[in-house]
Amino acid sequence: ENVPEAAAQAQVVAQKILGNLAQPYELDGHAQHSSVSVGVTLFGGEQREMVEEPLKRAELAMYQAKTSGRGSMRLFEPEMYTAVVTRATLEADLRQAVSEAQFLLYYQSQGGDGVRLIGAEALVRWQHPQRGLVSPMEFIPVAEASGLILPLGQWVLRTACAQLALWASRAEMAPLSIAVNVSARQLRQPNFVDQVLSILQESGANPARLKLELTESVLVDNVEDTIVKMRTLRDSGVNFSLDDFGTGYSSLSYLKRLPLDQLKIDKSFVRDILTDPNDAAIAKMVVALADSLGLQVIAEGVETEAQREFLNNLGCHHYQGYLFSRPMPIQEFEACAAQVLQVLNS
Ligand code: C2E
Ligand code: MG
Ligand code: MG
User: CA-CA distance, 343 to 340, in Å (whole number)?
Assistant: First the structure.
C-alpha cells in the first residue's frame, strides 16, 4: 500500500475532472460556464471506517478548495479537522459569553489638529474565563457567522449609549462622541433602526454624539435597504462613518448615494504611508474623494508623528491610533481624557 502514490493519482484524476468541467458549454443556445471545487481524501487502508468518515473529510477538503478560489482542488489534511473543532469550541464559548456578558468595552481616542480629543471608538474585548482577553479579530468573524453578533452588537450599543448619557452630565466630557462598529449582518436585520432608536431613547444618549461605523460590505447587497435605514437614523441625528475604507468593494456610484458623514482611511494604508508610494496615493485619493463628496476624513492606525504630519499635509485632519492612545478600559480612558482636557483648559 503506497499512500503518496494513491494521493498523486487521485490528484491527477481530480485535475482531469476540473479541466473538463471548466470547459464552457452550450445550453438552450446560451454559453454556460461552471466552476468546480474538488476535495480529495484517501480511504481503505488498514484503518476500517464507515463511509461517512471519508465523505466528511472530502467535504472539508472541498470547502478548503472553495475558499482558496474557484476551480481548485485540495487534498484532506488532519489540520482541516482541527480547525473545525477549534472553531466549534470557540462558537460554544462565545454563546456562553453572550449569555453571561463576559465582554468589556474599550475606548480609543480620536483627535484632530486643533482639538486633541473629539471622541472615542468603542472596541469590544472578550474576557474569556480560561484564555483571558481575546481579540475581536478572532471572535468577531465567528460572532458574525453564527449570528451571535446580534445580541453582542446590542450589548455594545447599549453600553456605549449608557456611557454617552453619563458623559452628557459632565461638562468636559459632554462634547465627546462615541463611534460604534456595526456589522453588515446587524444592519440587515429588519428592525435594526427600531433597535438603535429604542436604545438611544432608553439610555437618554444624544443621538448626535453617536457615530455608527459601517464597512464596505454593506455595499455588497441590498444597498437600497441600507440607504433607507441610514437616512432614518441620520434624520434622528445619528452619524455614519465608513470604516476600513479602501480595503473592500467600493462601487463609487453607491458611495455617492450613502448618507455618510465620514470616511475612515484604513490602517493598512497608514502603516507604510511614508515609504510606500501606493499607500500614499490611496490615502491621497480617499482624502480627495471625501472632499468632493463633502465628507469628513479620519485616519486610523496613526502611530508616529511623521505619519500624522504626512496625513495632515494630504488634507486629513482627524486621527486615531497609538500616537494618541491605545484602546483602554473606561476608567483609564476617562483619566487620560481628564489630563488632555485639563491641559487644554489651562
Ligand atoms: P476597526 O473597527 O477597524 O478598529 C480598529 C482596530 O485598529 C482596533 O483593533 C484597534 O485596536 C486597532 N488600532 C488602533 N490604533 C492602532 C494603531 O495605531 N496601530 C495599529 N496597528 N492598530 C491600531 P481591535 O480592537 O483589535 O478591533 C479589530 C476589529 O474588530 C475592529 O476593527 C472591528 O472591525 C472589530 N470590532 C471591534 N469591536 C467591535 C464591535 O463592537 N462590533 C463589531 N461588529 N466589530 C467590532
Ligand atoms: Mg471601527
Ligand atoms: Mg478600521
Answer: 5
pLDDT digits (tens, 9 = 90+) for 102-152: 999 999 999 999 788 999 999 999 999 999 999 999 999 999 999 999 999
Q: What is the dihedral of CA 300, 302, 308, 310, to 10 degrees?
A: -80
139: CA distance to ligand 2 center in Å? 15
pLDDT tens digits along 283-294: 999 999 999 999
Per the listing, cell 494618541 goes with 324
Q: Tell me which residue has its CA closest to atom 46 in ligand 1.
A: 181
Q: Name the residue of 181, 186, 241, 319 whose CB sits within 8 Å of the most ligand 1 atoms, as the mutation to test its pocket.
A: 181
Q: Which amino acid is at 321?
A: G
Kindly list the distances between the CA atom of residue 175 and the CA atoms of 112, 162, 181, 189, 322, in Å, as whole numbers in the listed order.
14, 15, 20, 31, 22
Compute, in angstroms, the gap from residue 182 CA to the centroid of ligand 2: 8
Give the tens place of pLDDT for each residue, 153-189: 999 999 999 999 999 999 999 999 999 999 999 999 9
Taking the CA of residue 227 as centre, how many other CA atoms within 13 Å lie in the half-sphere pointing to its CB? 12
Could you give the CA distance from residue 254 to residue 237 in angstroms, rounded to a whole number?
A: 22
Distance from residue 123's CA to the centre of ligand 1 (Å): 6
Q: Which atom belonging to ligand 1 lies closest to the Cα atom of 323?
A: 18
In whole angstroms, give the CA distance from residue 5 to residue 118. 64
Q: What is the mean pLDDT of residues 267-279?
A: 97
Q: How far is the CA of 288 from the centre of ligand 1 (A)?
A: 24
Nearest protein CA to atom 27 of ligand 1, as residue: 136
For 213-231, write each residue's pLDDT tens digit.
Answer: 999 888 778 899 999 999 9
Ligand 1 atom nearest to CA at 123: 38
- Could you report the per-residue pLDDT of 11-55, keeping only the tens digit for each? 999 999 999 998 999 999 999 888 899 999 998 877 788 889 899
